[in-house]
From TrEMBL:
PANTHER family tied to this protein: MEMBRANE-ASSOCIATED SALT-INDUCIBLE PROTEIN-LIKE, OS03G0201400 PROTEIN
Recorded family membership: Belongs to the PPR family. P subfamily.
Record's keyword annotation contains Repeat: yes
Residue stretches of each PPR repeat: 150-184, 221-255, 256-290, 291-325, 326-360, 361-396, 397-431, 469-503, 504-538, 539-573, 574-608
PROSITE patterns in alphabetical order: PPR
SUPFAM superfamilies hit by this protein: HCP-like
Protein name in UniProt: Mitochondrial PPR protein
Length: 638
């Protein structure tokens, strides 16, 4: 009799796996788990499952290759030599896959067979080579030939399935492991947790970890804790990650460099750099040495805030600890200096890294090119690609070309950008959606809307390999509305919705702005009013656009009402919002109301912008004796 269990139920109840009894076994069929009450050997059930997967990825036979005479161990090695070879290769991997297969074939024909530990070392060598499918196939052969297995060989196979993104097979094999009388250890379960995280299932990984603790199936080690912390960090749950970090310390499990580095990296990505620096101080105080990965995360975080003095301090600290910056470190600095327009500093960093024996790569020079483009020096960026990179034997990638294409589009040299796009294709590179979006926007920026629309329809819509995103939609909608093709913009918007693309608030902002500026205020209002039904909240830009539209059409009451409502809805007005409504009051001769709002604006730390000041001066010229205007001049222009 078979009883089906869902994957999530099995994973959330690991206790079931630890109490298998009788002849029952859990087998994987069609991505479900079943109890198989037959008395057949559990391993046979699993080998049939593995065979379906393995045969589609790698075909293996008991003797797949004849011995290769160039392989130093192709002749029948002594037991001692075989033992030494496997010990060495389990740590480094074989130079060639054929060599590993030859050794496996020799092992199968030895009398007596080598020990299970030696077979496990061979599988470990394949894992080192990232030959996961091959390892699974050889494991299957071991099962078929009834070669003795142990928890290590099972754990290696589980690890391979996780690397192949088949965690379902990994869990199936876990059940088989237990059925054969083995007890999965902390390494096995940590492998499964890591597999779930790698398949973007951190919630299930966390649930498995929680149940393992609850049912006392394992005593988590530092690797287990760090793996779960990494999963939490990937989901942005830094508070929970820190709580688990403190819990592991409380339980006597000492965090290591990787644990601290994982948390530090997450904090930096969340722009909590001071907290990350606090963890650095804590780990060094406890005698845990940071590594270059730790420092790279912190340097990136500090560069994001332009905290150059702190960056220099960290670099000095690295030097004092004899931790050498790597290419990643230098690339972070080149990118940061380039983004700030400090191109000379970026070039100095590249020169310094060469002196230190580090080799700049395509990322280094792409960052330098981006820095030139941000300064408007696109031709210099092109020289980096065509001269410097070529001289150093570095092949540009799609990102390198896209940087240049974007630079030329912003300089309104779209034809040159299109030439580079064609060059990219000739080099055998595949443009990304960002590359296509850049050229589409370039056409609209130069007023070539006919070519833009043609390019979109022929090069993007008909390209089945291309997935349009919200940025594509925003560019197209903005370009169409700017050129008064509002009906076409609405039609495309409906097509986008029908295709299943979910617009974000930026898309709605673009369309609301385009509609209101082209005399379609009611349609803009309808989109705005329906935002909550779409699960979206208007942001300050959305509110400001609608306020501006109301002011433009003389609907001051609606504009003022929306201004009051936005704050009640938790969206604070900014300086643009205030200045927009104040000019609306000016335009409609509501000078006293404008004065009250200007007082409020100044109290919040904002000031009148150039347009507002200019509007007030123009009014004073035409209405010199108006008391309300004179009061405003006295307050804000003296």
């Amino acid at each position: 009799m078979r009883r089906a269990f869902s994957v999530s139920f099995l994973r959330s109840n690991p206790l079931l796996l630890s109490h298998s009894s009788g002849n029952s076994a859990v087998v994987a069929l069609d991505n479900h788990y079943y109890y198989n009450s037959s008395s057949s050997c559990c391993c046979c059930a699993f080998t049939s499952t593995f065979h379906v997967y393995a045969i589609s990825h790698f075909s293996t036979n008991p003797n797949p290759f004849k011995p290769n005479s160039t392989f130093p161990y192709s002749s029948d090695p002594t037991h001692a030599r075989l033992k030494q070879l496997l010990l060495e290769k389990s740590k480094t991997g074989f130079d060639k896959l054929d060599d590993a297969l030859v050794v496996f074939d020799k092992m199968l024909h030895r009398k007596p067979l080598p020990s299970v530990y030696q077979f496990a070392q061979l599988l470990a060598a394949l894992v080192k080579m990232k030959q996961y499918s091959v390892a699974v196939s050889l494991f299957r052969d071991m099962c078929v030939k009834s070669i003795s297995l142990n928890i290590v060989t099972f754990s290696i196979a589980i690890n391979c399935f996780c690397h192949l993104n088949r965690v379902d097979y990994a869990f199936s094999l876990l059940a088989g492991t237990i059925k054969r009388g083995f007890h999965p250890d902390v390494v096995t379960y940590t492998t499964l947790i890591r597999g779930l995280i790698s398949q973007d299932n951190p919630a299930e990984a966390q649930l498995l970890f929680t149940n393992l603790i609850r049912f006392k199936l394992i005593q988590p080690n530092v690797v287990t804790y760090t793996t779960v912390i990494d999963g939490l960090c990937k989901r942005g749950h830094i508070s929970t990650a820190v709580m688990l970090f403190r819990y592991m310390e409380k339980k006597g499990c000492k965090p290591n460099t990787v644990t601290y580095s994982t948390l530090i990296d997450c904090l930096c990505k969340l722009r909590l750099v001071d907290q990350a620096l606090g963890l650095l101080h804590e780990m060094t105080k406890k005698g845990i040495t940071p590594n270059v990965i730790t420092y790279n995360s912190l340097i990136q975080g500090l560069c994001d805030f332009n905290r150059w003095q702190d960056v220099n301090q960290l670099l000095s600290e690295m030097n004092n600890r004899n931790i050498s910056p790597n290419v990643r470190t230098f690339n972070i600095l080149v990118d940061a200096y380039g983004k700030e327009g400090m191109i000379n500093d970026a070039e100095d960093v590249i020169e310094f890294m060469i002196q230190r024996g580090q080799h700049p790569d395509v990322v280094t020079y792409s960052a330098l090119m981006d820095g030139y483009c941000l300064r408007g020096e696109v031709d210099k960026a092109l020289a980096v690609l065509e001269t410097t990179m070529k001289r150093r034997g570095i092949v540009p990638d799609t990102h390198s070309y896209t940087i240049l294409i974007n630079g030329y589009c912003k300089k309104l040299k779209v034809d040159r950008a299109v030439d580079l796009f064609q060059q990219l294709l000739r080099e055998g590179l595949s443009p990304t959606i960002y590359t296509y979006n850049t050229i589409l926007q370039g056409y609209f920026l130069t007023g070539r809307h006919v070519e833009a629309r043609k390019y979109f329809k022929e090069k993007m819509m008909l390209n089945k390999a291309l997935t349009l995103n919200n940025i594509t939609c925003s560019i197209l909608l903005h370009g169409l509305c700017q050129n008064r093709f509002v009906v076409e913009a609405l039609s495309f918007f409906d097509t986008m919705l029908s295709a299943g693309l979910i617009p974000n608030i930026c898309i709605y902002n673009t369309l609301i702005d385009g509609l209101s500026k082209n005399g379609h205020l009611e349609k803009a209002r309808s989109l705005f009013d329906n935002l909550p039904l779409k699960g979206l909240r208007p942001n300050v830009k959305t509110y400001t656009m609608m306020i501006q539209a109301y002011c433009h059409d003389g609907l001051l009451n609606d504009a003022n009402e929306l201004f009051l409502k936005m704050e009640a809805n938790g969206c604070l007005p900014n300086d643009v919002t205030y200045n927009t409504l104040i000019r609306g009051f000016f335009h409609n001769k509501k000078y006293n109301e404008a004065g009250v709002l200007m007082d409020e604006m100044c109290a919040r730390g904002f000031s009148a912008d150039a347009s507002t000041a200019s509007a007030l001066l123009d009014l004073l010229k035409s209405q010199e004796q108006n008391p309300a205007l004179l009061a405003l001049r006295k307050k804000f222009l003296t």
